[in-house]
Each structure stands twice: as C-alpha cells, then as structure tokens.
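Lab notebook, design round three. We kept the backbone fixed and only want residue identities now. Task for the bench partner: fill in a sequence for the structure below.
Input structure tokens:
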C-alpha cells in the first residue's frame, strides 16, 4: 500500500510525457528511485533515492506539467479578491 502513491505518481508522469518510459525502482532500504527506460539504451537513474513523500513530490514536479484549468468563476473570484485587497488598503 505504501508504494501505491508512488506508482500512481509515476503513471501520471507517463501520461504527461505521453510515453511509458518512466518507472520506479524500490531499493532494499525502502527508498524509491525514478528510472527512465528508452529502447536501445541502458536504464538511466534520475535523481537520488528518496523516501516516499519526497519521491512523490519529485515525480510530480518532474517532466512536462499539465496546465491548470481555470474556469470563468475562478477568474471572477480572483478579480474580486484583488479588488477587496485594494479596497482594504485604502
């Protein structure tokens, strides 16, 4: 169960990268490491071996990022918040 979060993070990375070239390696001391496998090349270790939480944060920040979806309501809310801040400052 512990490595489920890590495996899910690697799956999200593969979807963002639109390939299935990333995987994780679980070491004997329970730390995790991200690896990249490209056909015709040896396995490449990316980064250092990390604890679970650090590994998930690293994988989530690695590679291409999906753009944040912003709705019209979000835009209006942020605009209202900026207006409230300027009104309070005066």
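Proposed sequence:
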């Amino acid at each position: 169960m512990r490595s489920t979060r890590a495996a899910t993070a690697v799956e999200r990375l593969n979807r963002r990268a639109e390939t299935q070239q990333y995987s994780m390696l679980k070491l004997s001391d329970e730390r995790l490491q991200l690896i990249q496998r490209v056909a015709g090349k040896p396995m490449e270790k990316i980064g250092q071996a990390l604890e679970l939480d650090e590994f998930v944060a690293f994988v989530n920040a690695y590679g291409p990022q999906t753009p944040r979806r912003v709705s019209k309501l979000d835009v209006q809310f942020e605009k209202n918040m900026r207006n409230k801040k300027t009104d309070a400052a005066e």
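Keep this in mind before ordering anything: The CA atoms of residues 5 and 84 lie 39 Å apart.
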